[in-house]
Amino acid sequence: MAEETNTSAAANGPAETPRSETARGEGPRGAPRGPRPTGPGGREGGRKYFRRKKVCKFCIEKIESINYKDVRLLAQFVAESGKIVPRRLTGVCTPHQRRLSTAIKQARNIALLPFAGRA
């Protein structure tokens, strides 16, 4: 009985092949694809872009206390939308990021920094 269903399905017409079985190097509708774009480093051969390790600005400049009144410094760590920029983007170490976020929040509460950016 199982044999009958398999042969009848084959007799009805060609079944669609799943995407994984299609020939590589073909784009949509069987058209040939162009060369792959290069990566962020712009180099051939699949080498990845070398990204410099980010270092804490406060540790390098030996800034021990982050003052909430220093708006020019704090504004560097607030995005245009008003959000605090995360550590992985700024490179600030964990203890300084904690102090930085409390200083930004204090500056927001006394209206030195905006809570939200322009809409």
Give a short synopsis of this structure.
By secondary structure, the protein is mainly alpha-helical. It contains 5 helices and no strands.
Explain what this protein looks like in three dimensions.
With 119 residues, the chain is mainly α. It has a domain at 57-109: 30s Ribosomal Protein S18. Helix content is 34%, strand content 0%. It is built from five helices and no strands. It has helices at 2-12, 57-60, 71-75, 87-90, 94-109. The longest helix has 16 residues, at 94-109. The termini are far apart. The mean pLDDT is 79.
Q: What is the H level of CATH, i.e. the homologous superfamily of the domain at 57-109?
A: Ribosomal protein S18
Mean pLDDT, as a whole number?
79
CATH class descriptor of the domain at 57-109: Few Secondary Structures
Taking the sheet with the most strands, its summary is: none
Q: Note the run of SSEs as H and E.
A: HHHHH
Q: Looking at the structure, what is the overall shape?
A: elongated
Helical element count? 5
Low-pLDDT residue intervals, each spanning 5 or more residues: none
Structural class: mainly alpha
The CATH topology annotation of the domain at 57-109 reads as 30s Ribosomal Protein S18
Distance between the termini: 67 Å
Descriptive tags:
119 residues; mainly alpha; 30s Ribosomal Protein S18
